[in-house]
Amino acid sequence: MKLLITGSAGMVGQNLLEHPDATNYEVLAPRRSELDLLDISNLKSYLAINQPDMIVHAAGVVGGIQANIAEPVKFLVDNMNMGLNILTTAKSAGIKRFLNLSSSCMYPKDAPNPLREDLILKGELEPTNEGYALAKVVSTRLCEYIHAEDEQFLYKTVIPCNLYGRHDKFDPKNSHMIPAVISKLFDAKKSNLKTVDIWGDGQARREFMYAGDLADFVYYAIRNFERMPQNINVGLGHDFSINEYYAEIARIVGFKGQFVHDLTKPVGMKQKLIDDSRMKSFGWKSSTSLESGLMQTFEYFKDTQ
Ligand SMILES: NC(=O)c1ccc[n+]([C@@H]2O[C@H](COP(=O)([O-])OP(=O)(O)OC[C@H]3O[C@@H](n4cnc5c(N)ncnc54)[C@H](OP(=O)(O)O)[C@@H]3O)[C@@H](O)[C@H]2O)c1
């Protein structure tokens, strides 16, 4: 099978390429310089020339809370256009299988946890990442519409919880919580700081899965694509508080100082835990513990410094 992976230079894309199952496929992994998803004529000619059997759409403009607040236009427009362009062009090119990567950020901010797949569009979105979430809702719905119009087109959406791992972004402007904390505590240790700030009271809960496990899920999904549900959450099914993440990362990095809570800073949603019932019935579960995932991520961070 010829598999096109978009966003192959990104964290999810790189973990897909590093997974042992990648060798079972003829993988097309163009960089943005070869395939810019915002350029529809580039996209049409790329698909006509290369004719993939299946697309895994892992490209996107992705970032943490600060980047989302600073550039809401880019997060909405680029993600929306990339999704619309690749889905409509793939449909016109007759590509029958499409795995769309969405995010648990698209669930309404007040939705009850654990977040079930049928809660999409059942309430207001979290304002700090609304543009990104809107784009994810649109591509998820478009997959449903394409399949509803012609059931031969299996266009399905995977909704991962937060991810971390090798190939993550560690610069504070673009990073998500785990890489940001690894970098912050590593610097604090090097500078012998006695205290480090935590935004908010640290009681908010987050579910972070190791990106290597998401790659494992994607290959499992490709092998079982006919019976995969239209929309499916992927995660651990359990979460940890921000304070617990800080404590575990401090242990791994070797930071021995104290934490101070800055209650003036935004914290986002109180909890964001996916419901993993569909994932369990589909027959997959994640295998990397928080400790092992954090240690591998920290090794990657040190190697790339
Ligand atoms: N990271 C998470 O915690 C998380 C959680 C849930 C879901 N997801 C979803 O998983 C997917 C991948 O996320 P990620 O963490 O791997 O993000 P990432 O590391 O930022 O990678 C995104 C990739 O998309 C590429 N890209 C951006 N604009 C493009 C364009 N116009 N044309 C072609 N490629 C373009 C980027 O290329 P450049 O390198 O050239 O910029 C980059 O390689 C996204 O859909 C995201 O929403 C991520």
How would you characterize this protein structure?
With 305 residues, the protein is α/β, with parallel strands linked by helices. It has a domain at 2-165 and 208-238 and 272-288: NAD(P)-binding Rossmann-like Domain (Rossmann fold), CATH 3.40.50.720. Helices cover 41% and strands 16% of the residues. It is built from 10 helices and 13 strands. The protein has a 6-stranded parallel β-sheet, sandwiched between helices. A 3-stranded mixed β-sheet has the order 11-8-13. The mean pLDDT is 96. It binds NADP nicotinamide-adenine-dinucleotide phosphate (NAP). NADP nicotinamide-adenine-dinucleotide phosphate binds next to α1 and β6.
List the helices and strands and how they pair.
Elements: E1 2-6, H1 11-18, E2 26-28, H2 40-50, E3 54-57, H3 65-70, H4 72-92, E4 97-101, H5 130-149, E5 154-160, E6 162-164, H6 177-190, E7 195-199, E8 205-206, E9 208-210, H7 211-223, E10 231-234, E11 240-241, H8 242-253, E12 258-262, E13 271-272, H9 277-282, H10 290-303
Parallel strand pairs: 1-2, 1-3, 3-4, 4-5, 5-10, 6-9, 7-12, 8-13
Antiparallel strand pairs: 8-11
The site of NADP nicotinamide-adenine-dinucleotide phosphate (NAP) has 23 residues, from helix 1 and strand 6.
